[in-house]
Amino acid sequence: MIKTILFDLDGTLLNTIDDLADAANWVCAQHGWPTFPVETYKHFVGNGIPKLVERFSPENARTPEQLAATLAEFSARYDAHKEDKTAPYPGIPELLAALKAEGVQTAVFSNKADAFCGKIIEHYFGPDSFSLVRGSRPSVPTKPDPAGVYSLMADLGADPQTTLFVGDSDVDILTGHNAGLPALGVLWGFRGEAELTTVGADALAEKPEDILTYLHQH
Asked: Which InterPro entries match (predicted)?
């Protein structure tokens, strides 16, 4: 019986890609660098914002000093515009309400900077939508390293035997498996079925209510 679900954020709960791409392309334009289509950003994201910045920065703009400056520039721009086009995926608010009604504990674990995660979740889902919301913090390795998951489960009092990890990318499936958890892949996110199947997702959800179905079967 699954009693706790740990959700990825970007591409799983919220469609954030347009705001991320817009902020990144704005930074690129300021520097006269090439910009990228939204489809490309779906593959640039997933490993944390510093890695996103590195990926959209040209080869000759990747010194530690330049990357730090670009990261600050991107973070300020994204923070100011992170709610321009972002929205929950259809069916997600209803799924969260159903899980709450069934007494399932939910939390968010993202590679997005921790400072952004709480604010963006509260904006779209309200202040008490999840037991805990956690993003990338300087002292903790990013997903798929399981250290952050272990810490989160300890803080939640969650039993690994009854915890499920849900996300849209290979990073999420690997995170769940590295932490010894079953990992369910969602097909509405940034990456798609082939990637999720290749890394061994335990189940796939075409729509949010499929997660409830999985829950009732396990």
From this structure: HAD-like_hydrolase_sf, HAD-like_sf, HAD-SF_hydro_IA, HAD_2, HAD_sf, PGP-like_dom2
- Which residue in this structure is represented by tokens 């997903």? 143
Is this prediction's pTM over 0.85? Answer: yes
185 forms beta bridges with 167, 204
The residues, any chain, with a CB within 8 Å of residue 137's CB and separated by 6 or more, are 114, 148
Q: Both tokens of residue 122?
A: 């509260």
Collapsed DSSP state (helix, strand, coil) of residue 98 = helix
Instruction: Summarize pLDDT for 20-67 with one digit per residue, the tens.
Output: 999 999 999 999 999 999 999 999 999 999 999 999 999 999 999 999
Provide the residue type at 171 as one letter: V
- Taking only Cα atoms into account, the Rg of the chain, rounded to an integer number of angstroms, comes to 17
* Farthest CA pair distance, the chain: 53
CA distances from 208 to 23, 148, 205, 215 (A): 28, 25, 7, 12
Catalytic residues: 8
